[in-house]
Amino acid sequence: MLKLRLILFLLAACCLTALAQPIVRVSGIVYNEEKIPLSQVTIIVLGQAQSTVTDEFGVYTIYSKSKNFTLKYALLGYQHKTLKFNELAGARVNQQILLQANINELEQVNITNKQNQLSNTTTINVTDVAFMPLVSGNFETMLKTLPGVSTNNELSSQYSVRGGNFDENLIYINDIEINRPVLIRNGQQEGLSFINSDLVTKAKFSAGGFEAKYGDKLSSVLDIKYDKPDSNQTVFSTSFLNTSFTTKKNFKNSFLLVGLRYKNNASVLIKQDEKGSYNPNFADAQILYQYDFSPKFNINILGNLNLGQFKLIPENRETQFGTLNTTLRLNVDYTGQEIDDYQTLGTAITATYSPKPNLVIKFINSYFNTLERERFDIDGSYVFDEVDQDFSGGSLGVINKNRGIGSYYNYGRNSLNTQVFASQIKVDQNFDNHVFSWGFKYDQSKYDDRLNEYNYTDSAGFILPNNSKNITLQNVINIENSLKIENYSAYIQDSYSLSDQAELQLGARATYSSLSDQLLISPRMLIAYRPNSNNKILRFTAGVYKQPPSYRTIRDFSGLLNLDQKAQSSYNTSIGYDYAFDAFGTRLKFTSEVYFKYSDRLIPYKIDNLRIKYLATEVSKGYAYGADFSIGGEFVKDLVSYFRMSIMHANEDIINDSYVQNGQTIYPGYLKRPTDQRVNFSIFFQDKLLNSPTYKVHLNALYGSRLPIGPSQTPKYLDKFFIPSYKRVDIGFSKDFLDDAALHKPKFLDKNFSSVILFFEVFNMLNINNTVSYLWLKDVDNVQYAIPNYLTGRQFNLKLIVKLKNKR
To answer: What is the DSSP string of 375-429?
Structure first.
């Protein structure tokens, strides 16, 4: 397989002959008659496959492959406008556009405008995904460069937002809520996420203060759209880590999207301290078909099959850690193996009916079945030494002292079968100056869970805890759970123009869960104000967010279920400010937001890699506050870059927790949450060679400050240890053989392809040992040591993306 991929790279790299002309770039701002910028305006190059949409400030950029071309500007509720261009090759044109309202569709434009402006979300540039060097290859990894999002694991697509955990994030694809697997313990087991990057046409992300139309979770929402393509497209991508194939077809009254993906990242995993035979294989297939029975009615069908297996036969491990004064080394020899697999099969059917221009009704039904299994039977014999550091050569010297010798054994046979059925109706309607939205949803989840696992530690011939008469197994779990949960939810919201510059949105959700037997009410408010300058937006949000208990939160360390658990709740408020300005010869956008979240009811938890272990019988209260900042734009012409920083603090107090010390009862009070990462900073910067602009560089740098942690079986007030700060730099170099700036294009490629891009990527360029979790070992004296589990080291990758030319 690797040989075949390498041949493809070499064929593409050798095709460098033939003459072609640079294409033309057109950029500008689209306004309405009141000189207010219009977002989500579609711009199309007629007769070509090029299209784009304006951002929230009405800004757009589009390219034409020919010098003579016509642009079409379209937005629902406004009269279409077409402009003809006759430019020099490689020209850069600035074109401002004024769209006039269409009286016959005036009601619809009110819906469009208010819903676009009244949203506390960030629009994600989906084209950046292909250029950003990502180890996991999953779309969600890109979120880790956004303000408010924390991460310390490049192998995973999971993320924490403003002090929340992985289970507090909503993900939608075409209004269908997506759930993640439950049993995954660490990033190396994680395969392909549900989102197929090649099928995404629009993506919005909110780190808080989101609308009532979104569901009942505490932290964030990611809203993904798979839409009708502008033209027929076929894309093939391959690298040393993954391969994908995507095709998009337009028909007379329908369209079809098909995406196939395969991933095997064994070459990355072998860079970890734990050596062995890694065999991770992940694949998925997605298909979306929509048929338009009339301009008013269509049916959309989404199908998904996601398969994955992670197999590891560990051999040995050597981990070095400690300080300059004390250098420690752990050597482990393994026997046994681990096999984890999962499969998800799902489908969703959406019917959309628009009986009149100001009314849209959606009826959505979905069913997903996920089967997860993990089987591990691993025995590790370890030697734990203190060694002398040889500073002259940088290598470890002689053994100074033996700290421990023994073995540990982990056994597990776990399986979980999850079935989720959901049915919902969503309605958007305009009444004069109001945009009224409401919806109702019913969902049912069934869980069949089988847990059977245990472990023990043998230190110097003694089983811990030391008992000369019996072998004591640790963390024994042997239980079967079967549970059905039903949820009923409804929302209502109204968007209203207070003036030409101010918009108000009021909404509320009502949710009933059969598990907690609670009726939850969650009011939410958003105010947006745009001054007369039109390049500034002020936002204020306030709302209540309540998350009903789920199967994850009610299952404790031993597998027992707390069926009396009640919903978590949070009271959020934020103030945001966006400002678009011209500097450095380009248009830049600055965004900022300060927020405060108070939670009077939370379920405390501990995190071990990707595994969240809830203290299901405990209740806590907590708070989080912070600020997010971002600035982005074309610092280098035609290439978008971003600089982002977040500052955050998150604490919680477990109610009625205490311990006795020296005969005195101690109440720990507020403690750091496991996601209390104070500082996050990210850079995604793109540049190109001045004299050879077809050669580009794509730099992705992340920094996250340290995270609190402790042994999984100890009380939270003993979590006084820290995972060190996360520091990572990934860099990619690309050559676009059919770039608009290319003076010479290979004849064969230009004839058959619309795009051919070759990438050379360096993951973890600085080869930093980032810690993701700890292996906790005790010696015979019951002294516990934290041995770091490091993430991936430096790795090289080649990637090729080709798009077939759309032949008419």
So the answer is: EEEEEEEEEEEEEEEETTTTEEEEEEEEEEEEEEEEEEEEEEEEEEEEEEEEEEE
Partnered with residue 688 across adjacent β-strands are 696
What is the C-alpha to C-alpha distance for residues 538 and 527, in angstroms, rounded to an integer? 8
Tell me the pTM. Answer: 0.85
**φ and ψ at residue 537, rounded to 5 degrees:** -135, 130
**Please, which residues bridge with residue 730 across strands?**
700
Find the helix or strand (DSSP H, E) in which 7 lies: helix 2-14
Other CB atoms within a 10 A radius of the CB of residue 88 amount to 11
Residue type, 28: G
Beta strands in 637-694 (DSSP E): 639-654, 659-661, 664-666, 670-672, 679-688
pLDDT in tens, 162-215: 999 999 999 999 999 998 888 888 888 888 999 999 999 889 999 999 999 998
Backbone dihedral angles phi then psi of residue 716, each to the nearest 5 degrees: -65, -30
pLDDT tens-digit profile of 708-727? 998 877 888 888 889 999 99
Provide the token pair at 282.
């992940």
Question: Are 174 and 89 within 8 A, CB to CB?
Answer: no
Can you spell out the DSSP letters for 8-58?
A: HHHHHHH----B--PPEEEEEEEE-TTS-B-SS-EEEETTSS-EEE--TT-
Q: What is the DSSP letter of 743?
A: S
| Residue 326 Cα distances to 40, 232, 396, 554, angstroms | 59, 62, 12, 42
